[in-house]
Design brief:
about 140 residues; alpha+beta; about 30% strand; globular; disordered N terminus
Length: about 140
Amino acid sequence: MGSAVRTIRIGAASVGVALTLGALATPAMAQPQLSTAAVQTQTTAAPAPTGLAYTYDAASQTVTVTWDPKDPTDTITRNYRPGSCGPTPQEPCFISSQIILGNSFSFKKAPNTAPMYVKIYAESATHQLTGSSVLTVTV
């Protein structure tokens, strides 16, 4: 019972402090409010990249992955990030910290090695990621 009394006193002391600071507290109406457009931008995911394809340069052992350019009306996508999935296409993907501003990226791959499974992720300003379908790279 002694601890219940202490809890009530602490609660009362907190309320007393809040009432004392009442004139200094920021009124709720003074808080900045987001416009509907800002809320939509923050909650809308970027469209998934489409049209993934790759080329292989045997001389340099370089794979270049490309995808469709960003639609000019897309105001959500800020950049892209490559992802590597595996060892099967159904496994989770590691998303690289590499930021891609265009619609291609390259990496080295020796011939006659295991397939690589690649996804491209579109990233919004709020860092929401939307992944493409998996591209299987075999050389």
